[in-house]
Amino acid sequence: MVLSHTMRAVEITAAGGPEVLKPCILPVPVPGHGQIVIRVAWAGVNRPDALQRAGMYAPPANASPLPGLEASGTVVELGAGVTRWQIGDRVTALLPGGGYAEYAVTMADHALPVPEGMSLREAACLPETCFTVWSNVVMRGGLKGGERFLVHGGSSGIGTTAIQIARALGARVFVTAGSAKKCAACLDLGAERAFNYRDEDWAAEVKGMGGADLILDMVGGPYIARNIRALADEGRLVQIAFLQGARAEVNFAEMMTRRLVLTGSTLRPQSDLAKARIAAEVEAHVWPLIRTGRFAPVMDSEFPLDRAAEAHARMEGSGHVGKIVLKVE
């Protein structure tokens, strides 16, 4: 397949608000060993994209400086050593960056086949959230059937994914969200209780039910101490982001006497091998849930690629429920 030498993309012109995202023309990326080039149809929009745009989340060495950590599309070029994929295969992939463009490059084993019957628009919503949720809730957090699971930001892309996967595992799911509409959306997905954090003491409520065996948090700041109070004895807190700050005062004596586990991770800085292992787990355990109708991405809205700034404004306004995507093709 003969590719164009240049492509449309959206770049970060300076650290700042959504307005610093500008359309541009760049060279098409070239695959290295073990990599593929994808002609992007749709790209997911995620909080780390906004953090990178604001100058708070630098891309890894050798990654594209463009934002965009997930995309769906068609394989158009293979690097040396790639055996699983063929030109023309439809894939959805975790990217080290570069999703806001017509072409993106990633490791071949960070891509997964588009589930049968699923559109490329929906498939673009899967990698970042599924990799994050499965690796933190199951691989790191060890969630099991029957356990009480609390997820903050239940109406976000991460939250809506976590609710469905946890329910499929047989867990009891509790969430926090910022409006009655968002709480209702979480209940519709299978959450047992949804607490409006603006006017409910979710920590006291959860503690009154016996405490959470596992909490998935991306808020941080003042939530950290409240999360610890809301945990059951031998409970686990998994931190994946810090929307309200990374610093908190913690009583480690309580952690010891109640045998709590405080852990966390970020996906992007992990090694290629670690991401490949997560991809294999997601394909083995989450893809069957999609095939049987037990999990589907919740879609909020779509924007053309050259209106990525509007997509970021939508996300940072926190009015969305589920995933926001960019239409590239």
UniProtKB/TrEMBL annotation:
**Alphabetical UniProt keywords:** NADP, Oxidoreductase
- Lineage, top-rank taxon, reads Bacteria
Extent of the signal sequence: none
Q: Which GO terms describe its molecular function?
A: NADPH binding; oxidoreductase activity, acting on NAD(P)H
Domain Enoyl reductase (ER): where? 16-326
NCBIfam families recorded:
quinone_pig3
> Mind telling me what this protein is named?
NAD(P)H-quinone oxidoreductase
This protein's species is Neotabrizicola shimadae
